[in-house]
Amino acid sequence: MRTPNRPITSWANQRVWVIGASSGIGAALALHLLHEGATVAVSARRHDQLLEVVAGQARASVVAFDVTDALAWPQAMAEVIEHLGGIDLVVMGAARYDPTHSWEIDLKQVEQSFDLNVVSVYRGLSVIVPELVARGTGGVALIGSISAYTGLPRALIYGATKAALNNLAQTLYFELAPKGLSVYLINPGFVQTPMTAVNDFKMPGLMTTSQAALSIARGFERGLFEIRFPRGFATVLRLISYLPDRLRFYLLHRFTGM
Ligand SMILES: NC(=O)c1ccc[n+]([C@@H]2O[C@H](COP(=O)([O-])OP(=O)(O)OC[C@H]3O[C@@H](n4cnc5c(N)ncnc54)[C@H](OP(=O)(O)O)[C@@H]3O)[C@@H](O)[C@H]2O)c1
Asked: Which of 55, 60, 102, 246 is deepest in the core (most CB within 10 A)?
């Protein structure tokens, strides 16, 4: 059977734009792909931090911008195309995480999280997808989260933003695959990054950023649609999400202790 996306068999001819690459998973992925031979542009707000991430890498370019600024997107894409000579794959990973309980909703946080985690993805897609469709080749990868699979404690805002991306990626795949484009949904479990440093609980299946980067690259190479990891924890959570309501909530209460 054919794979959902065309497998990326060599990174040497791939021009990749990693957005959200000044730290954590995005930074590790950019470095991994550079080591594999790709040409990579890295973006985030912190210019100096981006420079530090790709220091000494000849095939790397830095394009700093704020993804919540709609007007900055066309300019950023033009700069990336100028640096790389074109774009074969865009990885969209800029996001924030504010652990929140249902009884402590801060509307400012809700608006800012949806604006960054979801609306900014649409901002990016609105400039990137027409370009890729016109060329009839290339790929887009959204970084979601396995917290999108089912409601989890304190994921009140974050989980909902990532569930939105899980749905969005499926529609993108549905519409863009027939046009020759690749669409990927990356659903990480817990990864040790500045984002998860706020968690004061034991994170099951916690991975390093290098392990996460390797899993993502392998997913691209295998032509997957959904790239989820770590395999064990992500699969268990996926299976739990399919269970009948009472059993699902019972197990989640037991596992999370909440
Ligand atoms: N770590 C995990 O356990 C985990 C699990 C599931 C999913 N994820 C997802 O993986 C992705 C990367 O997360 P991470 O854990 O690696 O977190 P991280 O280290 O905090 O990285 C977040 C990145 O987003 C950038 N960013 C934030 N706001 C931005 C803005 N307005 N404009 C441009 N860039 C912005 C940050 O750079 P600047 O501050 O320089 O702008 C940074 O490069 C996110 O989508 C996250 O939701 C992470």
From this structure: 60
